């Protein structure tokens, strides 16, 4: 049995990896929580969004800041296995060249700025400081965000009338998008409520709840996530015939996180709950499975989704108890971190091929889809930004961008996931999923069945 000191060290290491989306999330944020100093929930100023050129827009250029996290440094620090994402600065330069070689953004040159974020010092204050730098010093029109999981980040940019193209795997509901409209978008991931509806439906169809009276729901404790779970997930789960036992976890810091996860494991074990799922977009699955492994005689079956980063389990099987993955089933919408290339040819879609061609023109290649897990969302965000800007007649600002994407977004296809949910008010591009399950014989997660549109009602 590991010592208490070793146990603590292992858990902290797990958190550091997830900060940047390679594994678990250090920030472990729920959907839409507002931190002190962030947006107060009064919505954005549409008048400002419509008022002349947006920030960072000049007569001949548009400034766009790309936030990157040094994933390879995190990998070196933790020793966890994950595919290298390559030279992110060079990838952004390739996208800048592609935009400018093809007419720019509505005829204006894109000025791409690279900002490296230190995930080791992540905190609400650090992300607000970065927001201040990008909105006040850089005066950016748009920011492409990766590795930003503190919940004050998005409201900060929206308050400053800065367009956000979110490339972090962060759960955002339709209400949250509406609150921060027209500034907040994701070109690579789905809307959260539609995900929750489809997730519960698939788990029921896959008989995940069969023979069980209850299901444990590990949930990040935040106002918006509470609203989604209490008013959507809980009623849906009850309709399947199981009673949800929700364990709310305070993800403010590592101390409150582990206290919440340990208490959740104790509660589920004491109540005989043998089915566990995770909601809130915080990717707590790996941490919880490790914590639950310390509870003698507690070996539940887990649901899985792209929010839980399935590839981390496969790449780092010794970080969780043996057999944790056995029987895992759920839904996947993000192939770069769902399944190996042997299960889904890479590239396999026109959007993937278009993005890889852009990088190839700059001499950049990827050894696998997983190694392109950051480059593809960067490409998605850039392509969406160009689609919107090219469709504007008049001033380039957030409101005009929204009108253009509402009109033309139906033609957009993400390179990071299936389906399309843009156009007519949609703010999250990925519109479909596939059943995802762990195949013990292959030692990998696989897709089972065709692509299915998310249930949006």
Task: Name a few traits of the molecule.
Peripla_BP_I, single chain, 457 residues, 37% helix, Rossmann fold, globular, 7-stranded mixed sheet, alpha/beta
Short description:
InterPro entries: Peripla_BP_I. With 457 residues, the protein is an alpha/beta fold.
What does this structure look like?
With 457 residues, the protein is α/β, with parallel strands linked by helices. It is 37% helix and 16% strand. It folds into two domains: 61-190 and 346-431, 3-Layer(aba) Sandwich (Rossmann fold); 193-342 and 435-453, 3-Layer(aba) Sandwich (Rossmann fold). The strands form two sheets. It has a seven-stranded mixed β-sheet, with helices on both faces. A hairpin with a 4-residue loop joins strand 11 (432-439) and strand 12 (444-453). The N and C termini lie far apart (48 Å). Mean pLDDT is 87; it is low at 1-43. InterPro entries: Peripla_BP_I (IPR028082).
